[in-house]
Amino acid sequence: MVGAATVLGGCVLLYLVLDLTLLPSSNHNAPLTRETHSNSRWGKQFESSLEKLEGDIKRNQNKVQEIKNAIDTISNFVNQRTESKEIDSNKFQNNLERDLYAGDEAETCPATSAEADINMLDLYNSIPFDNADGGVWKQGWNIEYNKQQWGPRRKLRIFLIPHSHNDPGWLKTFEDYYHSQTQAILTNLVNKLSEDSRRKFIWAEVSYLMLWWSEQGQENKDKMRRLVESGQLEIVTGGWVMNDEANSHFWAVVQQLTEGHEWLMQHLGVRPKHAWAIDPFGHSATNAYLLKKSQIAASLIQRVHYSVKKRLAQDKGLEFRWRQGWSNEKSDMLTHMMPFYSYDVPHTCGPDPKVCCQFDFKRLPGYGVTCPWRISPQPITNDNVRQRAELLLDQYRKKAQLYRTNVLLVPLGDDFRFDHSAEWDAQFNNYQALFDHLNARQDLYVEAQFATLSDYFSALKIEVGGEKRLPSLTGDFFTYADRDDHYWSGYFTSRPYYKRLDRVLIGYLRAAEVIFSLAWSHGKATSSNGSPWLLSPHAGLRNKLTIARQANALFQHHDGVTGTAKDHVMRDYGNKMIKAIDSVQHVIQMSAQYLLYNQANPELDPNDIYFHLDDTRPRTGALSKRNKITFGEGLDTRKVVLFNSLNRARTEFVRLRVANYNVMVTDQSHRPLPSQVQPLFDEMASMVDGEYELLFIVTVPPLSLTTFLISWTSNADERAPLASVSLANHQGQHKLHSAEGFEQIGSLPEGQNIKVNSQQISAVFSSHGLLKSVSTQGITMTVKLEFVRYGAVEGRERSGAYLFLPDGPAKVVMLKQAPLVRVISGPVATQIEVQHPFVLHQATIYNCSGEVGSSIEMVNLVELVNGKNIEVAMRLTSDIESGDTYYTDLNAFQMIERRRQLHKLPLQAHYFPMSGMAYIEDSGIRLSVISGQPLGAASLSSGQLEIMQDRRLAQDDNRGLNQGVEDNHPTPNVFRLLLERKSCHSEQWPRASLAAHLSHQSLLWPLVHLIAAGDPLVQLKGSFSPETSSECGLHVLNLRTSWLTERPRVGLVMHQLAWDECLPPPVGLSCTPRMSSMLNVSAVLPTSFGRQMQKSSLTFLHTGEQLPTNTNQSLCPNELAAFLLA
Ligand SMILES: [Zn+2]
């Protein structure tokens, strides 16, 4: 191995020399853009190497010629070596690439935004977006080429990659697709590949592999293992699904990737090396980062705006090193972007779909699929092979003009292809005949073969002379348009009920992962036999965790969390998610009971319910149901345990339902907590009888369980204060009913503003109950909240699940009369509630210090259950001079700058995914909206931010779904709104404030409410609270128990939050707001996790050196680091 590596290194160097000096610049290393060539570091480096090498050539032409002759022999050898090395590495290599991970010594963290050859924001400024007709390649140009660029030593090498795109749910459910097609595809795969060792295939969706594998006998399993080992079959990406990159939260992306990778390791012994994302509707830089940290070496993407593709193709920039805007070249992901409209065969062999379609042999007459260009494929025969091969080669050669090298990637496949064995024969036999002819022809200088992504990228890296020769790129690929003004910004919001359910599920799933890992490691450390009961099969918790992990992973599919599947498929995802929530709630309550038990490692009844989790959904489409805490004879105190899954102390509000208004809440030492009791409403002016809401403020330690007592009391001095209730605009149109204890209902003067003051915020609401202005941190600012609506443009192409095609600017939702407004006010919170058309809007200001008191909480219960072609958005208009710049996030992991260009891009192009937050700012003030669910967001004029809430569309938008979006359910969209003073201007990359980060954590990873199910037979401990540090910025992303090895281990992922220090942290935080680039795991976790750990890749497949947990390591802002604990 060592010898081979040396030879390889030497050859790459020699090849690089040749590349630079002997090849025509028309095809190689063409300047990327004018600026790149002259200005960038890359350009300068290239120029000076070129000059130096040219000088060398003149001095010693003969020597160079000798090298050139030697190369052809050696490069063939290198290619063979590389292929066999890939196979070896799939099987055996388990080394963690050192530079990907935190080092022991302090490293310098990037202080400014990354520099790159291509910056997507600048590129957008320079692209005309004129949608010119390019001829046969409609969105490009008429490609020409010079045959002289190929010769005996410069062959065009074709890598044809057969694939089948299997959506885990879209028009059919995951299971229905499996039974109708995917099962046969995978069975054919093992049989048809085994017939001929020249055949290759790639597979992406591990969820389907899992189903298929579970039904196979030993023979088929062995066949598949052999195919993977021989390199005929490559598993690409290895995620549970091919995840959506717009709406997905990065926590869930890591989760679905880990789920897939663990399965692959367990059953096929394989660690994926390359990624394949041909169908997600736009691509996120976060995804590239997560793949990089999972030790994926290169990746392929497809759905990118057609004008961006054209520009990159013109500049030969379709292959690049995708760099994080906040990092340096350490984060670079080698990326191949496909150039044309689609991943189907007509759009992958070359620029002319009419020709390429003739090389999709599933469309041979008689198979039931035809070519829309009306020229059918022909079976390849001795008589026609010459003509057919030349016709195909012409397309390949044209496509090759768009890339820098003479290796060419050509996918061969489509949705659910290769389900019949006849199709395998038709494709593989006809292509083999074409390849045999092409490879035999001395005059064509071409080599064609079936290939995997590994084959292609290995060849590319050698051909290009090392990936550092490719340009670097920062930015992302949103918002995707596939043609004309068809921007795919509708799916950022489609089916918000399910999008919110996704976030509820990941909240519980993460809490379950953390508490389960805490509990069994604690049990192991404290029990005499070191074998924690929680891990026993009898406890049944592993199975419950698996159900939830797989349901959540499945929904990350690009027709899942996107909301672009058929109604019944969405319901199926919903049912799976609700079952998943039930499952992990069970894990949480068992783990809590286990941790609080008075004896080490107790054996619990696996079917017992010790705690109710105060949040259930009886069916898909239903809102959350809460537990009512009741009191009875001899039961005047109820226990509530709160679980904090964060590794920092936090101060939060808790809302519980109680059956009586005469209640008090205390900690375990019977000290009362700040609280209030308020009525609940079943109609606008009608209170519910016999049920109230108790609100209280708690501060809880990191990674802890803490018990609180809710007691019934007859003593009026002890009980929680009752909130006052006032109504505005009540003109008798609503039935008035008051509950016991709240007989006094105030009335607010007509047309008068409503003012609310708390410790940190003063806010003014209009007489219609909507925010008008905010004062905080010495700033007073207009922040006007409105609901606006869009219609769908008339014509053949209209808005649907994917597309947003508005009929013009939004119109403000007008009211026929002043709406009834409820103002509920007590010592700890003031809540304003108003029913607007489509939305029950609630704004709450909490009267406390810390991050919760620094923001306004907003809940929009959106009900778009009637009407046709309506899209409703919440719009905030402020005096902030934000110009044409705004910021949205990518997968709630990083912020990215957006620019408004209404002069050349339509309104719908300005909607971007808001997975976690968005903000606008000027030199002195920032307005952030933090979101508890993914939605689309835009800033359509200076000072404005708008967030789409729901959409109801009566028609299909011609992207295959074949239905509109009319299955809307009432959906509670939750937000926090933050107005912050900026004390300076940061030169660093865009980043959220600390308050915004903490608010996001508060929405996503809430305190878990555990209501004791009854009078417990055993006395439980009042708390579980390990001694750990409590820094605000060092975040335990996950503590995940893994069964990959014989004994379970806990995988830890740490995230160093990056926040903008120009926005000072809120006063009175319960965690320590220290900006750090260091990590010491032993300070973060309890000692039960042991004193040793291994560094690891993000999905735990690659592990590095063993080291003590108390090692000080550098972890730069925004970086993730993973470890396997002992
Ligand atoms: Zn798909």
TrEMBL record:
<dbReference type="Pfam" id="PF07748">
    <property type="entry name" value="Glyco_hydro_38C"/>
</dbReference>
<keyword id="KW-1133">Transmembrane helix</keyword>
<keyword id="KW-0333">Golgi apparatus</keyword>
<dbReference type="InterPro" id="IPR011330">
    <property type="entry name" value="Glyco_hydro/deAcase_b/a-brl"/>
</dbReference>
<feature type="signal peptide">
    <location>
        <begin position="1"/>
        <end position="28"/>
    </location>
</feature>
<keyword id="KW-0862">Zinc</keyword>
<dbReference type="InterPro" id="IPR050843">
    <property type="entry name" value="Glycosyl_Hydrlase_38"/>
</dbReference>
<dbReference type="InterPro" id="IPR013780">
    <property type="entry name" value="Glyco_hydro_b"/>
</dbReference>
<comment type="subunit">
    <text>Homodimer; disulfide-linked.</text>
</comment>
<keyword id="KW-0472">Membrane</keyword>
<dbReference type="GO" id="GO:0006013">
    <property type="term" value="P:mannose metabolic process"/>
</dbReference>
<dbReference type="GO" id="GO:0004572">
    <property type="term" value="F:mannosyl-oligosaccharide 1,3-1,6-alpha-mannosidase activity"/>
</dbReference>
<comment type="similarity">
    <text>Belongs to the glycosyl hydrolase 38 family.</text>
</comment>
<protein>
    <recommendedName>
        <fullName>Alpha-mannosidase</fullName>
        <ecNumber>3.2.1.-</ecNumber>
    </recommendedName>
</protein>
<keyword id="KW-0812">Transmembrane</keyword>
<keyword id="KW-0326">Glycosidase</keyword>
<dbReference type="InterPro" id="IPR015341">
    <property type="entry name" value="Glyco_hydro_38_cen"/>
</dbReference>
<keyword id="KW-0732">Signal</keyword>
<dbReference type="InterPro" id="IPR028995">
    <property type="entry name" value="Glyco_hydro_57/38_cen_sf"/>
</dbReference>
<dbReference type="GO" id="GO:0030246">
    <property type="term" value="F:carbohydrate binding"/>
</dbReference>
<keyword id="KW-0378">Hydrolase</keyword>
<dbReference type="InterPro" id="IPR037094">
    <property type="entry name" value="Glyco_hydro_38_cen_sf"/>
</dbReference>
<comment type="pathway">
    <text>Protein modification; protein glycosylation.</text>
</comment>
<dbReference type="Pfam" id="PF01074">
    <property type="entry name" value="Glyco_hydro_38N"/>
</dbReference>
<keyword id="KW-1015">Disulfide bond</keyword>
<dbReference type="GO" id="GO:0006491">
    <property type="term" value="P:N-glycan processing"/>
</dbReference>
<dbReference type="InterPro" id="IPR011013">
    <property type="entry name" value="Gal_mutarotase_sf_dom"/>
</dbReference>
<feature type="domain" description="Glycoside hydrolase family 38 central">
    <location>
        <begin position="486"/>
        <end position="577"/>
    </location>
</feature>
<keyword id="KW-0479">Metal-binding</keyword>
<comment type="function">
    <text>Catalyzes the first committed step in the biosynthesis of complex N-glycans. It controls conversion of high mannose to complex N-glycans; the final hydrolytic step in the N-glycan maturation pathway.</text>
</comment>
<dbReference type="InterPro" id="IPR027291">
    <property type="entry name" value="Glyco_hydro_38_N_sf"/>
</dbReference>
<dbReference type="GO" id="GO:0046872">
    <property type="term" value="F:metal ion binding"/>
</dbReference>
<dbReference type="InterPro" id="IPR000602">
    <property type="entry name" value="Glyco_hydro_38_N"/>
</dbReference>
<keyword id="KW-0735">Signal-anchor</keyword>
<dbReference type="InterPro" id="IPR011682">
    <property type="entry name" value="Glyco_hydro_38_C"/>
</dbReference>
<dbReference type="Pfam" id="PF09261">
    <property type="entry name" value="Alpha-mann_mid"/>
</dbReference>
<dbReference type="GO" id="GO:0000139">
    <property type="term" value="C:Golgi membrane"/>
</dbReference>
